[in-house]
Design the sequence.
């Protein structure tokens, strides 16, 4: 039996710089799997390889019975993988509702763009309904017609998540969902992740620097350093792992 | 947003049509000619805005497709006797095909590289128009007959005016529908963030290529409209300066909005007519003034004239904004560097 | 004949390279393509002629003054117009269109301002910096000015390459472009750096203007030569100073060979064809650094 | 983009359109007089030329020169008791602008006739409209080959010669006076160059001269090495150039640099606006050892003519020295005045056109007559050839007149 999601021997170089070297990991269905490591460890590169923003030189990424490396970036969400962005990539000049509508892209049937038609009306009505439901769920309904760029930071993070959820993924990649948030907000994200994983049956892969969040929500943790996996295990195991303490916690936990 | 056109949006299109049929009875030919030119520019600018303002692709090849529209329609109609509408359609298809062809390599390029590659294409196209004597008449230019559409002859500005107005109205309507469609939103998404777009399942390259093709078709339609009231084409009018004029219209009016673009067309289009009427001692400053207006507009009106206008409307509080402020789900935090 | 054409091509190539260098300095440090670079060259030429003929300065003094004035002018334009565009009004990436349009606007202003002066109706020519009888190698002729242009182009290229790579200011300039926010955080005065870059590029345009005006002749429209500079830098990769010079030379030689073997009619379109070809085949040019992957 | 705002945009747009329409309507009177622009004491003429933009040098002074001749006529009491009133506008030499200006003159200002235009492509763009509306039109100083061949009733042009006339004069001079056997032609790849090259070839061939090479160069060329090398390879014994000012200098420089100075170089007039400036730009006396150019006026050979027009110009322009192309504004105005006079007091557009058609005018400024006919719309066909060595200009003996036979 193959794993729900598996990365095998992934290798990615930019010019002379090796970002990820011979990296393998597996994610169990329904789990929250965190990927941690110091800055520049290659976490974002792994995410970008999964989203197909970059082409790894070797390895494979298997999900749902096929190799994601055979797909192009826009086919990834249809394969069942959604993602959020670390640096708040939003459609800043579009409204909150439009952002979520974009997230729904693959679930809206095709129609001719230049003309009114019953098919168009049906497709649009359904998309609108679904998007509004997602806004309701993420507490963003009040901002429906606000431009995303005009939202405050916290709401922008939330919108990023709402947009990713709109694609109805089975695996959700979260790139530093707590970055820039305050403690109280982090606990909100904390709750939200657990709720989502449960209610939607989501598998979540998480890159995060905020250790308390990682330790409280993750079922399993993989540690990357200089593009290589140095440890993997449950939060408790990782906390005790000597290499991790040396490479990561050692430098940052005390800072 | 999704939905069909609202009544108020129809009013705009209707106004164009009413003006198109009424004005020829009221205005002298000079105004009609200027009007025809402006409407042609409007179609051209709306098409360019699809690329620049909507899908965020800074591409300059537009004027080449305009040329394809003019030469295509003129040659098919005048020399080969193909009916006007068919010639226009064929030119639009040729331009669309060329747009696809350009679109594929262009979709790989970004920012200035895209701008330069497409600009180079436009220059190459102009060179072809100017040197391909047997087809385009080369540097002597090409004379063509006024088209006849179902027995209606369009030779004069007055006769052409309603037809050009219909063309503009159709293009505006199509663009309004496009704005509300899935494709239209996808273009905007690509403009705002290609990463979000492709992570949301939008085929970024596909949409870019499609935008190129649609924009090329619009430009070709503008070219076909041009043949309705002009009877002579020379490659000189397909050069960089015309391109800059159209770009200026889009930027000064306000990109990614049809009304902004139309406003820009009217303002920038009338500017030379106004400058021309200046006292002759000031006339030599024309080019300088034009440039100064351009720089000043960019510096002081980053959203264009339309943006300026909208800001004044937006200064009044909007209902949903107020309700939003009362129920924050997450408290605002200052942005910190990760 | 081919040898003569090639040598002339190399000289013209260095002319293009000088303009390309000015473009690349600005692009490297502020991410803007200065479409008015050609007009800067034109202005410098006229300025030089004005100082020489009207104010009766001697040649070396004229060169110094022209370059200084051009430096000030470039810095001023950056300060008054571009800085406002880069500022808070536009998002970082959306600034490209307005910036390009602003430089196009500037090119109109400069052209227009020069045209106002009645004597510019005529084609004018600045006396060459290096004068004297031409130099003969067998049956190949070269003007002294031409040899001067090649030497200056190569010297400028070497000086700039060293400057960008080994001096504090050069490094700061590069950092400013690659990540303005980070540069600001580590204490680089980003605004002043942008001004510096524009000043430097304009000063270089000043040198180019003095060298090129005798060769290209001065009209208010001579700024159109900027497209050749752009083509040269595209071939060179737009970020590489050495690439620029090689790109210019390739372009100059190809133009002349096309003039001989195809048709002089095709000379004008050659640079554009080359731009298209290079960008389609190798989007980073022949010597460009790989495009930076934006962090997401 | 907020779509909610977009409907508001459209309402606003509609309102604006309506307002523009209404204001415009209010100011218009569609009634059309039989022949507009003439009253008992006035003739209204719409005049245009490039008063701004790259081609300003071809427009400003010629327009001033024509203006001053009309003023002079007015001072003498006008034409049959009518004073001439001018409206002058800028056409930038752009085809779109010229059509716009012409339509403005005809439908808003309601002029009697049009006088203007300095660029061939631009006047060609307006020719259809002019003929359709039956407005008499005299070009200012455009060579206008494409607008006068084939001739149309209402368009009169080429008052200082067509490219055909230049080329014919040169080729005749080359064959007869210089006894050339092998000719090289270098022209631009535009409509000017095309007409020039075709006529040069036809005329040379008529005299049994072999045209060994025709090089067509872009007007914005910056390196003349390739075409000049090719010309040198072809071993001509006369070189005919139809280049514009900047390329003309570059051609002369390369010509000297490549040691071709033994071969006579013939340059058409458009390339040397002011001979002294040209010589200064070339900066190589050797290049002008064997140098000739065409000229359509008498002012070089005849000092009296020169002073007459220059002094007149200065008196109208606060003592300003005229620019290079001033003389080219003279003949068209002289012709228009003569035709207005000939058409008599009962002036109509048709009457004026008939008078223009019958014109055969000899006057001091030109070596040959300005002449039109039922099948002829190009005015000047006679040229003189000037030899210029960088210091003095010498008019070569004889005049050279194109016989009007078309090149094929």
Sequence:
């Amino acid at each position: 039996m193959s794993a729900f999601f598996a990365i095998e021997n992934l290798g990615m170089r930019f010019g002379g710089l090796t970002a990820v070297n011979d990296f393998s990991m597996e994610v169990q269905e329904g789990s929250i799997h965190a990927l941690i490591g110091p800055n520049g460890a290659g976490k974002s590169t792994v995410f970008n390889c999964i989203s197909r923003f970059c082409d790894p030189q070797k390895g494979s990424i298997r999900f749902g019975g096929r190799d994601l490396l055979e797909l192009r970036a826009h086919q990834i969400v249809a394969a069942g993988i959604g993602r959020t962005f670390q640096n708040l990539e939003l459609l800043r000049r579009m409204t909150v509702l439009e952002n979520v509508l974009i997230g729904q892209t693959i679930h809206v049937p095709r129609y001719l763009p230049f003309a009114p038609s019953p098919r168009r009306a049906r497709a649009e009505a359904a998309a609108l309904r679904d998007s509004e439901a997602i806004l309701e769920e993420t507490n963003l309904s009040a901002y429906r017609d606000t431009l995303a760029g005009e939202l405050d930071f916290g709401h922008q993070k939330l919108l990023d998540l709402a947009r990713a959820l709109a694609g109805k993924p089975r695996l959700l990649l979260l790139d530093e969902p707590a970055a820039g948030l305050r403690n109280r907000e982090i606990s909100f994200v904390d709750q939200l992740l657990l709720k989502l994983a449960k209610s939607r049956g989501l598998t979540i892969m998480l890159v995060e620097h905020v250790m308390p969040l990682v330790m409280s929500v993750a079922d399993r943790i993989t540690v990357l350093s200089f593009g290589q996996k140095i440890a993997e295990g449950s939060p408790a195991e990782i906390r005790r792992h000597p290499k991790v303490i040396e490479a990561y916690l050692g430098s940052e936990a005390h800072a | 947003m999704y939905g069909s056109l609202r009544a108020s949006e129809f009013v705009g299109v209707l106004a164009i049509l009413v003006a198109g049929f009424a004005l020829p009875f009221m205005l002298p030919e000079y105004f009609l000619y200027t009007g025809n030119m402006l409407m042609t520019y409007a179609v051209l600018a709306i098409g360019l805005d699809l690329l620049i303002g909507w899908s965020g692709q800074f591409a300059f090849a537009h004027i080449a497709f305009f040329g394809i529209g003019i030469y295509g329609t003129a040659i098919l109609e005048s020399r080969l006797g193909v009916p006007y509408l068919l010639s226009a359609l064929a030119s639009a298809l040729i331009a669309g095909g060329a747009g696809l062809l350009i679109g594929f390599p262009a979709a790989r390029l970004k920012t200035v590289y895209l701008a330069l590659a497409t600009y180079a294409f436009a220059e190459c196209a102009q060179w072809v128009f100017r040197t391909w004597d047997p087809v385009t008449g080369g540097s002597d230019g090409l004379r063509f007959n006024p088209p006849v559409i179902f027995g209606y002859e369009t030779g004069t500005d007055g006769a052409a005016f309603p037809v050009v107005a219909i063309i503009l109205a159709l293009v505006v309507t199509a663009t309004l529908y496009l704005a509300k469609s899935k494709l239209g939103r996808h273009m905007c998404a690509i403009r705002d963030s290609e990463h979000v777009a492709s992570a949301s399942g939008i085929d970024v390259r596909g949409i870019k290529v499609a935008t190129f093709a649609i924009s090329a078709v619009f430009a070709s339609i503008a070219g076909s409209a041009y043949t309705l009231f002009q009877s002579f084409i020379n490659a000189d009018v397909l050069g960089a300066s015309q391109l800059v004029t159209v770009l200026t219209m889009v930027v000064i009016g306000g990109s990614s909005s049809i009304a902004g673009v139309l406003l820009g067309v009217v303002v920038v289009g009338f500017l030379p007519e106004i400058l021309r009427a200046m006292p002759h001692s000031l006339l030599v400053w024309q080019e300088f003034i034009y440039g100064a207006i351009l720089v000043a507009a960019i510096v002081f009106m980053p959203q264009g004239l339309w943006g300026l206008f909208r800001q004044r409307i937006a200064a009044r509080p909007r209902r949903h904004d107020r309700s939003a402020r009362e129920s924050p789900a997450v408290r605002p935090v200052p942005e910190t560097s990760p | 004949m081919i040898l003569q054409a090639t040598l002339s091509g190399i000289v013209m190539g260095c002319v293009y390279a000088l303009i390309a260098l000015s473009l690349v300095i600005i692009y490297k440090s502020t991410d803007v393509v200065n479409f008015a670079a050609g007009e800067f060259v034109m202005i410098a030429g006229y300025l030089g002629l004005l100082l020489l003929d009207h104010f009766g300065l001697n040649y070396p003094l004229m060169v110094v003054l022209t370059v200084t004035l051009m430096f000030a002018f470039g810095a001023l334009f950056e300060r008054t117009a571009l800085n406002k565009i880069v500022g808070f009004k536009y998002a970082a990436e959306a600034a490209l269109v307005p910036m390009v349009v602003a430089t196009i606007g500037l090119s109109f202003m400069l052209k227009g301002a020069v045209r106002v002066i009645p004597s510019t109706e005529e084609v004018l020519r600045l006396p060459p910096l290096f004068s004297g009888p031409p130099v003969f190698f067998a049956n190949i002729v070269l003007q002294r000015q031409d040899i001067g242009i090649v030497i200056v182009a190569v010297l400028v290229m070497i000086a700039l390459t060293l400057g960008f790579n080994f001096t504090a200011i050069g490094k700061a300039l590069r950092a400013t472009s690659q990540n303005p926010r980070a540069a600001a955080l580590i204490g680089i005065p980003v605004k002043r750096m942008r001004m510096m870059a524009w000043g430097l590029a304009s000063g270089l345009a000043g040198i180019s203007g003095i060298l090129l005006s005798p060769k290209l002749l001065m009209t208010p429209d001579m700024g159109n030569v900027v497209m050749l500079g752009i083509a040269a830098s595209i071939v060179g990769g737009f970020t590489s100073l050495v690439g620029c010079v090689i790109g210019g030379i390739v372009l100059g030689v190809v133009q002349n060979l096309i003039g001989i073997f195809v048709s002089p009619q095709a000379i004008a379109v050659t640079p554009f064809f080359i731009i298209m070809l290079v960008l389609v085949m190798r989007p980073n040019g022949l010597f460009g650094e790989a495009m930076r992957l934006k962090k997401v | 983009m907020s779509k909610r705002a977009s409907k508001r945009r459209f309402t606003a747009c509609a309102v604006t359109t309506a307002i523009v329409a209404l204001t415009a309507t209010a100011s218009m009177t569609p009634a059309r007089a039989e022949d507009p622009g003439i009253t008992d004491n006035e003739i209204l003429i719409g005049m245009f030329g490039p008063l701004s933009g790259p081609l300003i040098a071809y427009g400003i002074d010629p327009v001033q020169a024509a203006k001053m001749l009309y003023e002079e006529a007015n001072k003498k009491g006008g034409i049959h008791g009518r004073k001439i009133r001018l409206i002058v506008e800028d056409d930038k030499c752009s085809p779109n602008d010229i059509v716009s200006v012409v339509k403005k003159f005809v439908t808003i200002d309601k002029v009697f006739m049009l006088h203007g235009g300095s660029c061939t492509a631009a006047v060609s763009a307006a020719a259809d409209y002019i003929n359709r509306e039956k407005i008499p039109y005299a070009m200012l100083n455009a060579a206008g080959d494409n607008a006068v061949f084939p001739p149309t009733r209402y368009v009169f042009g080429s008052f200082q010669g067509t490219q055909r006339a230049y080329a014919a004069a040169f080729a005749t001079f080359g064959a007869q006076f210089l006894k050339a056997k092998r000719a090289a032609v270098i022209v631009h790849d535009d409509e000017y160059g095309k007409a020039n090259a075709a006529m040069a070839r036809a005329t040379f061939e008529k005299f049994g001269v072999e045209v060994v090479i025709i090089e067509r160069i872009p007007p914005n060329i910056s390196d003349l090495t390739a075409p000049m090398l090719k010309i040198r390879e072809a071993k001509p014994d006369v070189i005919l150039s139809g280049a514009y000012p900047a390329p003309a200098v570059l051609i002369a420089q390369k010509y000297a640099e490549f040691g071709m100075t033994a071969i006579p170089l013939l340059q058409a007039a458009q390339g040397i606006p002011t001979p002294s400036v040209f010589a200064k730009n070339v900066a190589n006396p050797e290049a002008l050892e064997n140098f000739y150019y065409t000229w359509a006026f008498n002012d070089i050979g005849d000092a009296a003519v020169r002073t007459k027009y220059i002094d007149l110009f200065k008196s109208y322009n606060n003592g300003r020295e005229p620019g290079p192309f001033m003389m080219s504004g003279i003949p068209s105005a002289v012709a228009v005045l003569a035709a207005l006079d000939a058409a008599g007091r009962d002036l109509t557009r048709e009457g004026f056109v008939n008078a223009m058609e019958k014109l055969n005018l000899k006057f001091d400024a030109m070596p040959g007559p300005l002449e039109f006919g039922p099948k002829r719309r190009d005015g000047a066909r006679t040229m003189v050839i000037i030899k210029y060595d960088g210091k003095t200009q010498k008019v070569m003996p004889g005049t050279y007149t194109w016989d009007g036979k078309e090149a094929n």
